[in-house]
Amino acid sequence: MSVSCLRVVGSSRAALHLIRHFVSKTVTRSAHCLFTSFISKDVWHSTMNLRALTTGRGLIHHTNLVNSPMNYCTGQVRLNCWNCNRRLDKSVFFCVSCKVVQPPEEEASYFKIMDCDYTFTLDTNKLQKRYLQLQRSLHPDNFSQKSVKEQEYSESQSALVNKAYKTLLKPLSRGLYMLKLEGMRIEEGTESGADSYFLMELMEINEALDEARTPEEANKIGRDTKEKLSELTEQIDAALHKGELQAAKALLTQMKYYANIEEKVKEKLSKFM
């Protein structure tokens, strides 16, 4: 083989080596970028989902997150202020530059909107403070002298904050919303997850409440119901932390029934007044 041929072969091999090295680095960086942005999604901040990520459980409920362009480093949406066109580095209610209210981020989770940890046992005091803070700044009355667009955005933002607050405030609606984020629902008007023994127990409680003739009798049922709801809250929190979504769903179904009894107790007590 001639020297010129050896040079061609050698240079070709070197070029091939460089190409392989470049492709390997590119793929590795892309994979790292995708994985990093994927787990940075606010819904993955919970212990439950981090455990699911490492064990492989529960991933089927999050496949829709992977398909979102916002989860890829090369496809992250960088929003600009509609008024001054300055880039908004993160989801905000107001532009840092011109102070103008921004349109609501409809796809954002309520936990993100209310700046709460993604957990069933969230800090309701912090939630209430956040709610009051946002409503003081976003209430439509503050924008009566502003442009039509600002008035519309303030109304939309205020309504979204109200909905997020009411959903996260009570354990039952909070838990149902968390299941919804996980791709699960509890059908209305069904007795899914409730066995015959449990339903019989509920019938007895309802009958005792109907037959209650004094406030003391109704209060006794109310105290027992609150105790049961407290126990269910602990069990649901434990199930969610373990990623046991079906168990959490069954427990939330029970919580719906007991929450209904709690409301009936209040109605019964109001009749004694």
Walk me through this protein's architecture.
- This protein is mostly helical and 273 residues long.
- Among the domains are: 1-63; 196-271, Monooxygenase (Up-down Bundle).
- The chain is 63% helix and 1% strand.
- The protein has ten helices and two strands.
- Strands 1-2 form a two-stranded antiparallel sheet.
- Strand 1 and strand 2 form a beta hairpin.
- Helix 5 runs antiparallel to helix 6 and helix 9 (215-242) runs antiparallel to helix 10 (245-271).
- The longest helix is centred in the N-terminal third of the chain and has 37 residues, at 3-39.
- The radius of gyration is 27 Å and the shape is elongated.
- The protein starts with a helix and ends with a helix.
How would you concisely characterize the structure shown here?
This protein has 273 residues and is an all-alpha fold. The chain has helices at residues 3-39, 47-55, 63-66, 110-113, 124-138, 148-169, 171-181, 196-211, 215-242, 245-271; strands at residues 79-80, 87-88. Among the domains are: 1-63; 196-271, Up-down Bundle (Monooxygenase).
